[in-house]
């Protein structure tokens, strides 16, 4: 299994041949200018919420790939309004777990806001836990530090994708606390350096995690990471 980082919070998992794309935002990201969004062919797309920097390329990628899109109920309604067929959209909610051909995906809490690119209500943001064989991977989405993360402590997570840019989400120090809350030592940082408010010192961030016995991975845009 592997993950490919496409900038901001856009990650594509390859779960033993099934491709799962999270939060497609590439075209409008200057850091991802070398990525050909039209070449992406995921089998599934999961949305953490409906802000523009997480859904901007949804319709293009879905049209090219025919991917099934999964999201919380109100965001899923917006997805259908983009012309994506009912049978290609899965709506669910907190506490729900999807049983899919590649594994299970549980929807979990995230502390943030959510609206459509048009400024309309889009439900609330979410995170996901992917159960793939004996591996467990947490994609936190956009979130602040929250005590609900402690509910994941006993899952024995192998990997966690956490926002670290601050301003709109957790910063580095809070992400360290989050890693401790969820009891996960392998952290992949997302949602940083795309815009000035979320620019960070990446070397300092890595050292901060190391000081707490944690490993922070910051793959370059377009780079792959073995899971």
From TrEMBL:
Name one matching Pfam family.
Lactamase_B_2
Q: Which InterPro entries match?
A: Metallo-B-lactamas, RibonucZ/Hydroxyglut_hydro, UPF0173_UPF0282_UlaG_hydrolase
> Domain Metallo-beta-lactamase, which positions?
7-191
Question: What GO MF annotations does this protein's record show?
Answer: hydrolase activity
Assigned keywords, A-Z: Hydrolase
Which SMART domains does the record match to this protein? Lactamase_B
Membrane-spanning intervals of the chain = none
PANTHER family noted in UniProt: UPF0173 METAL-DEPENDENT HYDROLASE MJ1163, UPF0173 METAL-DEPENDENT HYDROLASE MJ1163-RELATED
NCBIfam families in alphabetical order:
PRK00685.1 (NF001911)
Q: What is this protein called?
A: Metal-dependent hydrolase
Tell me which species this is from. Sphingobacterium oryzagri
Organism lineage reads as: Bacteria, Pseudomonadati, Bacteroidota, Sphingobacteriia, Sphingobacteriales
């Amino acid at each position: 299994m592997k993950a490919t980082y496409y900038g901001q919070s856009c990650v594509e998992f390859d779960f033993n041949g099934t491709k799962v794309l999270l939060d497609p935002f590439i075209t409008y990201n200057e850091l991802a200018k070398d990525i050909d969004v039209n070449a992406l062919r995921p089998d599934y797309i999961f949305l953490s919420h409906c802000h523009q920097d997480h859904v901007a390329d949804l319709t293009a990628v879905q049209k090219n790939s025919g991917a099934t899109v999964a999201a919380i109920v109100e965001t899923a309604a917006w997805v259908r309004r983009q012309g994506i067929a009912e049978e290609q959209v899965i709506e669910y909610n907190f506490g729900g777990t999807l049983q899919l051909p590649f594994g299970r995906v549980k929807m979990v809490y995230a502390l943030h806001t959510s609206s459509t690119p048009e400024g309309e209500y889009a439900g609330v943001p979410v995170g996901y836990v992917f159960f793939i064989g004996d591996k467990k991977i947490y994609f936190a989405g956009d979130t602040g530090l929250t005590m609900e993360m402690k509910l994941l402590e006993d899952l024995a997570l192998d990997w966690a994708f956490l926002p670290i840019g601050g301003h709109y989400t957790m910063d580095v120090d809070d992400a360290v606390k989050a890693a401790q809350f969820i009891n996960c030592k392998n952290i992949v940082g997302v949602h940083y350096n795309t815009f000035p408010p979320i620019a960070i010192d990446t070397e300092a961030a890595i050292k901060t995690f190391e000081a707490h016995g944690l490993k922070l991975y910051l793959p370059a845009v377009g780079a792959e990471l073995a899971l």
